[in-house]
Specification:
The radius of gyration is 18 Å and the shape is elongated. It is built from 11 helices and no strands. Helix 2 packs parallel to helix 4. The protein is mostly helical.
């Protein structure tokens, strides 16, 4: 509907933004071909050197990661970060105002995890969260959960469970269903280490929180 409305009112930048977001959704649904194609369309429509171009390239990177193309993935992320560093805010639209270097880097961390570089991904999540505004609580929880999954991928269940418990605390505080969804995936990742005490503590805590989080879940986030 948003894409239809953007055409109806002749808002070109909104059209580009919606196309980029559709690429993000395709990536979340593990559809690399659609993620790449939608982001490529958004990039070609965006003003050269704009925040919207950087946004589209950031989501295109995830598509390449899902397609196991690490070279193209990291190239897109480097270009997106370079664009963000050079933005002239006086010429920018209201769309994607949240895009900054920390957002690109947290997406780099996600891509590294998808590509199987789990130790690098965990470190990248930690660095990106150091640069994340304190007000972005729900997003921090999502990124903590993804950091935890990277630790699990690196066969470090204790670190994974510790990060997972921190994310769970934010889920309880904010009522974020998105964090809980990520933690449910972490719970599955940690199944093989169920006898590790930290893992057992995390899984017990998650079991007690899931019904409550489902009931009070709030949509969206600040830094999505």
């Amino acid at each position: 509907r948003a894409l239809e409305w953007s055409h109806a009112v002749g808002d070109h930048e909104m059209t580009v933004y919606v196309m980029a977001r559709k690429s993000q959704l395709a990536g979340d649904m593990h559809d690399p071909e659609s993620a790449i194609d939608l982001a490529a369309a958004a990039t070609s429509m965006a003003r050269e050197g704009s925040r919207l171009q950087a946004t589209a390239q950031t989501y295109k990177a995830l598509g390449h990661a899902l397609a196991s193309d690490g070279r193209e993935c990291l190239l897109e992320l480097d270009e997106a970060h370079g664009l963000v560093d050079e933005l002239d805010d006086g010429r920018e639209s209201a769309w994607a105002c949240w895009l900054d270097g920390s957002y690109v880097e947290v997406q780099r961390a996600r891509c590294l995890s998808v590509l199987g570089s789990y130790n690098q991904a965990a470190e990248a999540f930690q660095q990106a969260m150091r640069d994340l505004p304190a007000s972005y609580r729900r997003d921090r929880g999502v990124y903590l959960a993804r950091e935890a999954r990277a630790h699990a991928g690196a066969h470090d269940p204790e670190q994974a469970a510790t990060a997972g418990l921190r994310a769970l605390a934010i889920a309880q505080e904010t009522g974020s269903g998105r964090i809980v969804n990520e933690l449910a995936l972490l719970d599955s990742d940690l199944t093989r280490w169920g006898k590790v005490s930290e893992v057992a503590d995390f899984r017990d805590a998650l079991t007690s929180v899931i019904p409550q989080a489902t009931l009070v879940s709030q949509p969206g986030g600040d830094h999505v």
